[in-house]
Sequence to fold (273 residues):
Amino acid sequence: MSSKSVMTLVGSVALAFYSSMAFSSKYNFQEPQSVIAQDIYDQHIWALWICLAIFVGVFGVMFYSIVKHRKSVGYKAANFHHSTTVEVIWTTIPLLILVAMAYPATKTVIAMKDTSASDITIKATGYQWMWGYDYLQGEGEGISFYSKLSTPPAQVTNKEPKGENYLLEVDNNLVVPVGKKIRVITTANDVLHAWWVPAFGVKQDAIPGFIRDLWFTADKPGLYRGQCAELCGKDHGFMPIVVEVLEQEKYAQWVADKQKASAAVVTTAAVGN
Fold:
Protein backbone atom coordinates (compact mmCIF):
# COMPACT_ATOMS: atom_id res chain seq x y z
CA MET A 1 0.00 0.00 0.00
CA SER A 2 1.40 3.39 -0.99
CA SER A 3 2.09 6.11 1.53
CA LYS A 4 -0.65 8.21 -0.08
CA SER A 5 -3.19 5.44 0.44
CA VAL A 6 -2.08 5.03 4.04
CA MET A 7 -2.49 8.75 4.70
CA THR A 8 -5.93 8.72 3.08
CA LEU A 9 -7.01 5.77 5.23
CA VAL A 10 -5.69 7.35 8.41
CA GLY A 11 -7.43 10.60 7.54
CA SER A 12 -10.74 8.84 6.93
CA VAL A 13 -10.53 6.98 10.24
CA ALA A 14 -9.69 10.22 12.05
CA LEU A 15 -12.67 11.99 10.47
CA ALA A 16 -15.03 9.15 11.36
CA PHE A 17 -13.74 9.08 14.94
CA TYR A 18 -14.03 12.86 15.25
CA SER A 19 -17.57 12.81 13.87
CA SER A 20 -18.73 10.10 16.27
CA MET A 21 -17.15 11.93 19.20
CA ALA A 22 -18.79 15.20 18.17
CA PHE A 23 -22.28 13.77 17.85
CA SER A 24 -22.50 11.12 20.56
CA SER A 25 -19.93 11.87 23.25
CA LYS A 26 -21.23 12.20 26.77
CA TYR A 27 -19.06 15.31 26.97
CA ASN A 28 -21.05 17.04 24.24
CA PHE A 29 -24.13 19.24 24.68
CA GLN A 30 -27.37 17.67 25.87
CA GLU A 31 -29.76 16.55 23.16
CA PRO A 32 -31.56 19.73 21.96
CA GLN A 33 -35.23 19.98 22.91
CA SER A 34 -36.09 23.39 21.46
CA VAL A 35 -35.49 25.38 18.28
CA ILE A 36 -32.90 27.62 19.93
CA ALA A 37 -31.07 24.68 21.49
CA GLN A 38 -30.96 22.97 18.09
CA ASP A 39 -29.52 26.09 16.47
CA ILE A 40 -26.86 26.35 19.17
CA TYR A 41 -25.97 22.67 18.81
CA ASP A 42 -25.76 22.86 15.01
CA GLN A 43 -23.47 25.88 15.15
CA HIS A 44 -21.33 24.16 17.77
CA ILE A 45 -20.84 21.15 15.50
CA TRP A 46 -20.24 23.39 12.48
CA ALA A 47 -17.55 25.30 14.41
CA LEU A 48 -15.88 22.01 15.36
CA TRP A 49 -15.73 20.97 11.71
CA ILE A 50 -14.19 24.32 10.81
CA CYS A 51 -11.60 23.86 13.56
CA LEU A 52 -10.83 20.39 12.23
CA ALA A 53 -10.44 21.71 8.67
CA ILE A 54 -8.08 24.45 9.88
CA PHE A 55 -6.09 21.92 11.93
CA VAL A 56 -5.74 19.52 8.99
CA GLY A 57 -4.88 22.34 6.57
CA VAL A 58 -2.28 24.05 8.74
CA PHE A 59 -0.54 20.94 10.01
CA GLY A 60 -0.83 19.23 6.63
CA VAL A 61 1.05 22.08 4.94
CA MET A 62 3.54 22.23 7.79
CA PHE A 63 4.38 18.50 7.72
CA TYR A 64 4.44 18.45 3.91
CA SER A 65 6.94 21.32 3.95
CA ILE A 66 9.08 19.61 6.60
CA VAL A 67 9.23 16.36 4.62
CA LYS A 68 9.57 17.69 1.09
CA HIS A 69 11.79 20.67 1.82
CA ARG A 70 14.26 19.11 4.24
CA LYS A 71 17.96 19.70 3.85
CA SER A 72 18.78 15.97 3.68
CA VAL A 73 17.22 15.68 0.21
CA GLY A 74 19.19 18.66 -1.04
CA TYR A 75 16.45 21.29 -0.88
CA LYS A 76 17.71 24.82 -0.53
CA ALA A 77 15.62 27.25 1.48
CA ALA A 78 14.16 30.25 -0.30
CA ASN A 79 15.43 33.65 0.77
CA PHE A 80 12.64 36.18 1.07
CA HIS A 81 11.06 38.22 3.86
CA HIS A 82 7.90 39.70 2.38
CA SER A 83 5.01 38.56 0.20
CA THR A 84 1.97 40.78 -0.30
CA THR A 85 0.04 37.89 -1.85
CA VAL A 86 0.59 35.61 1.16
CA GLU A 87 -0.38 38.37 3.59
CA VAL A 88 -3.60 39.09 1.68
CA ILE A 89 -4.47 35.38 1.63
CA TRP A 90 -3.84 34.75 5.34
CA THR A 91 -5.91 37.84 6.20
CA THR A 92 -8.80 37.20 3.81
CA ILE A 93 -9.37 33.52 4.60
CA PRO A 94 -9.78 33.98 8.41
CA LEU A 95 -12.04 36.97 7.75
CA LEU A 96 -14.31 34.89 5.52
CA ILE A 97 -14.37 32.09 8.08
CA LEU A 98 -15.36 34.51 10.86
CA VAL A 99 -18.14 36.02 8.73
CA ALA A 100 -19.45 32.55 7.87
CA MET A 101 -19.56 31.71 11.58
CA ALA A 102 -20.86 35.08 12.77
CA TYR A 103 -23.88 35.29 10.47
CA PRO A 104 -25.83 32.26 11.81
CA ALA A 105 -24.65 33.01 15.35
CA THR A 106 -26.04 36.55 15.14
CA LYS A 107 -29.37 35.26 13.85
CA THR A 108 -29.58 32.85 16.79
CA VAL A 109 -28.71 35.51 19.37
CA ILE A 110 -31.39 37.82 17.96
CA ALA A 111 -33.93 34.98 18.08
CA MET A 112 -32.94 34.19 21.67
CA LYS A 113 -33.80 37.74 22.71
CA ASP A 114 -37.23 37.81 21.02
CA THR A 115 -39.56 37.11 23.95
CA SER A 116 -42.59 38.72 22.28
CA ALA A 117 -45.87 36.91 21.59
CA SER A 118 -45.38 34.40 24.40
CA ASP A 119 -48.20 32.07 25.41
CA ILE A 120 -47.28 31.89 29.10
CA THR A 121 -45.15 34.23 31.23
CA ILE A 122 -43.53 32.95 34.41
CA LYS A 123 -41.40 34.86 36.89
CA ALA A 124 -38.46 32.88 38.31
CA THR A 125 -37.01 34.40 41.49
CA GLY A 126 -33.72 33.15 42.85
CA TYR A 127 -33.32 32.72 46.61
CA GLN A 128 -30.49 31.28 48.69
CA TRP A 129 -31.01 28.45 47.76
CA MET A 130 -34.21 27.69 45.89
CA TRP A 131 -36.43 29.08 43.15
CA GLY A 132 -39.78 30.79 43.43
CA TYR A 133 -42.16 30.59 40.46
CA ASP A 134 -45.09 32.91 39.75
CA TYR A 135 -47.31 32.36 36.70
CA LEU A 136 -48.02 35.92 35.58
CA GLN A 137 -49.79 35.53 32.25
CA GLY A 138 -51.49 32.86 30.20
CA GLU A 139 -52.96 29.53 31.29
CA GLY A 140 -52.07 29.04 34.93
CA GLU A 141 -52.05 32.74 35.80
CA GLY A 142 -52.01 33.23 39.57
CA ILE A 143 -50.21 29.99 40.44
CA SER A 144 -47.21 30.46 42.75
CA PHE A 145 -44.90 28.04 44.53
CA TYR A 146 -41.33 27.44 45.67
CA SER A 147 -39.07 24.78 44.20
CA LYS A 148 -36.17 23.45 46.23
CA LEU A 149 -33.81 20.51 46.36
CA SER A 150 -35.46 17.21 47.31
CA THR A 151 -32.36 14.98 47.43
CA PRO A 152 -32.28 13.44 50.93
CA PRO A 153 -29.57 14.89 53.23
CA ALA A 154 -28.38 11.34 53.91
CA GLN A 155 -27.25 11.08 50.28
CA VAL A 156 -25.44 14.39 50.50
CA THR A 157 -23.54 13.22 53.59
CA ASN A 158 -22.78 9.81 52.02
CA LYS A 159 -24.91 7.90 54.50
CA GLU A 160 -27.07 6.51 51.69
CA PRO A 161 -26.32 5.55 48.07
CA LYS A 162 -26.67 8.39 45.57
CA GLY A 163 -29.95 8.46 43.66
CA GLU A 164 -30.22 8.54 39.86
CA ASN A 165 -30.90 12.28 39.85
CA TYR A 166 -28.65 13.19 42.76
CA LEU A 167 -28.74 16.98 43.36
CA LEU A 168 -30.93 17.41 40.25
CA GLU A 169 -34.36 16.77 41.80
CA VAL A 170 -36.83 19.18 43.38
CA ASP A 171 -40.04 19.01 45.40
CA ASN A 172 -42.06 21.13 42.93
CA ASN A 173 -41.30 21.01 39.22
CA LEU A 174 -41.87 24.01 36.97
CA VAL A 175 -44.68 22.71 34.75
CA VAL A 176 -45.32 23.97 31.20
CA PRO A 177 -47.23 22.70 28.16
CA VAL A 178 -45.48 21.26 25.11
CA GLY A 179 -45.32 23.39 21.97
CA LYS A 180 -46.10 26.70 23.71
CA LYS A 181 -43.80 29.71 23.83
CA ILE A 182 -42.82 30.15 27.48
CA ARG A 183 -41.37 33.46 28.60
CA VAL A 184 -39.40 33.30 31.86
CA ILE A 185 -38.69 36.56 33.68
CA THR A 186 -35.72 36.23 36.01
CA THR A 187 -34.85 38.21 39.11
CA ALA A 188 -33.37 37.51 42.54
CA ASN A 189 -34.17 38.21 46.15
CA ASP A 190 -30.65 38.32 47.56
CA VAL A 191 -27.57 37.66 45.40
CA LEU A 192 -26.82 36.82 41.77
CA HIS A 193 -28.34 33.59 40.50
CA ALA A 194 -28.78 32.22 36.96
CA TRP A 195 -31.62 30.16 35.46
CA TRP A 196 -30.08 27.53 33.18
CA VAL A 197 -31.68 24.55 31.40
CA PRO A 198 -29.22 23.17 28.81
CA ALA A 199 -31.75 21.08 26.85
CA PHE A 200 -33.68 24.25 25.98
CA GLY A 201 -30.58 26.31 25.21
CA VAL A 202 -31.52 28.94 27.81
CA LYS A 203 -29.42 30.64 30.47
CA GLN A 204 -30.14 34.03 32.02
CA ASP A 205 -28.76 35.77 35.10
CA ALA A 206 -31.18 36.57 37.92
CA ILE A 207 -30.09 39.89 39.41
CA PRO A 208 -31.59 41.56 42.51
CA GLY A 209 -33.49 44.69 41.52
CA PHE A 210 -33.39 43.90 37.79
CA ILE A 211 -35.65 42.05 35.37
CA ARG A 212 -34.16 39.83 32.65
CA ASP A 213 -36.05 37.44 30.41
CA LEU A 214 -35.68 34.41 28.16
CA TRP A 215 -37.96 32.08 26.26
CA PHE A 216 -38.22 28.50 25.09
CA THR A 217 -40.67 26.18 23.38
CA ALA A 218 -40.31 22.55 24.39
CA ASP A 219 -40.46 20.08 21.50
CA LYS A 220 -41.72 17.07 23.42
CA PRO A 221 -43.01 16.09 26.89
CA GLY A 222 -40.56 15.00 29.55
CA LEU A 223 -38.44 16.11 32.49
CA TYR A 224 -35.58 18.52 31.77
CA ARG A 225 -33.03 19.39 34.41
CA GLY A 226 -30.81 22.40 34.97
CA GLN A 227 -29.07 24.30 37.75
CA CYS A 228 -28.27 27.74 39.03
CA ALA A 229 -25.22 28.78 36.99
CA GLU A 230 -23.92 31.60 39.20
CA LEU A 231 -21.80 31.13 42.30
CA CYS A 232 -24.51 32.26 44.72
CA GLY A 233 -23.05 31.10 48.01
CA LYS A 234 -22.04 28.01 49.97
CA ASP A 235 -25.08 25.97 48.86
CA HIS A 236 -24.80 26.97 45.20
CA GLY A 237 -24.62 23.30 44.21
CA PHE A 238 -27.96 22.56 45.88
CA MET A 239 -30.18 24.75 43.71
CA PRO A 240 -31.43 22.62 40.80
CA ILE A 241 -34.11 23.39 38.22
CA VAL A 242 -36.56 20.81 36.91
CA VAL A 243 -38.94 21.68 34.08
CA GLU A 244 -41.78 19.21 33.50
CA VAL A 245 -43.27 19.45 30.03
CA LEU A 246 -46.80 18.04 29.68
CA GLU A 247 -49.25 17.49 26.86
CA GLN A 248 -51.84 20.29 26.71
CA GLU A 249 -54.65 18.21 28.29
CA LYS A 250 -52.46 17.12 31.20
CA TYR A 251 -51.20 20.66 31.67
CA ALA A 252 -54.76 21.98 31.83
CA GLN A 253 -55.54 19.37 34.48
CA TRP A 254 -52.43 20.36 36.46
CA VAL A 255 -53.50 24.01 36.35
CA ALA A 256 -57.01 23.11 37.51
CA ASP A 257 -55.64 21.04 40.40
CA LYS A 258 -53.24 23.78 41.48
CA GLN A 259 -55.91 26.47 41.36
CA LYS A 260 -58.32 24.26 43.27
CA ALA A 261 -55.71 23.62 45.96
CA SER A 262 -54.97 27.36 46.23
CA ALA A 263 -58.67 28.15 46.55
CA ALA A 264 -59.01 25.57 49.31
CA VAL A 265 -56.12 27.14 51.24
CA VAL A 266 -57.71 30.62 50.93
CA THR A 267 -61.07 29.26 52.09
CA THR A 268 -59.53 27.52 55.09
CA ALA A 269 -57.65 30.69 56.04
CA ALA A 270 -60.84 32.76 55.77
CA VAL A 271 -62.78 30.32 57.97
CA GLY A 272 -59.97 30.30 60.50
CA ASN A 273 -60.20 34.08 60.81
